[in-house]
Design a protein that fits this description.
Elements lengths: L10 H32 L9 H24 L5 H41 L5 H7 L8 H6 L6
């Protein structure tokens, strides 16, 4: 919507378009903050992504606020078009890098949690420790013995 302001020649219509866009940004940001508060209230602090998901949502709100400041500075001719492009490029690089790293960490944390739950819910017998303590065969197969570099007794 704010991008459409460039197509209007009347300054009043141009600024009404920009202010409408700003109002929608504030409304959506409020909804995102409400989601963050609900997420924090309903999720366990022991989850791997407990802080990452809320932080990425708040970070996106702040990133788009900086984009908006750059846009407004450009519209009021406080910065040149070259400065605007440099600022947008730096923001794009920084935001994309941080968001990619956070999403990678969220995915990795989810897989880690899945592995931990899988291993903790499986019933592993203590036959190996019992067999070793009794002086018996600690390995169940020749392949397992080879993996440990020992001979099966």
């Amino acid at each position: 919507l704010a991008w459409c302001a460039y197509f209007f020649t009347d300054p009043l219509i141009r600024w009404v378009t920009v202010m409408a866009s700003l109002g929608l940004y504030i409304w959506v940001s409020y909804a995102m903050v409400q989601w963050v508060l609900e997420f924090v209230r309903t999720h366990s602090e022991f989850e791997s992504d407990f802080l990452l998901k809320p932080c990425i949502a708040i970070g996106l709100i702040l990133a788009f606020a900086v984009y908006g400041i750059i846009y407004l500075a450009s519209m009021t001719e406080s910065i040149t078009s070259v400065q605007e492009r440099i600022l947008y490029s730096c923001m794009n690089l920084g935001v994309n890098l941080v968001v990619s790293l956070v999403f990678m960490q969220i995915t990795t944390g989810s897989y880690h949690d899945l592995l931990i739950i899988t291993f903790l819910s499986r019933d592993f017998g203590f036959s190996r420790q019992v067999a070793e303590a009794a002086g018996g065969t600690p390995f169940h197969s020749d392949l397992e013995a080879a993996a440990w570099g020992r001979r099966r007794s």
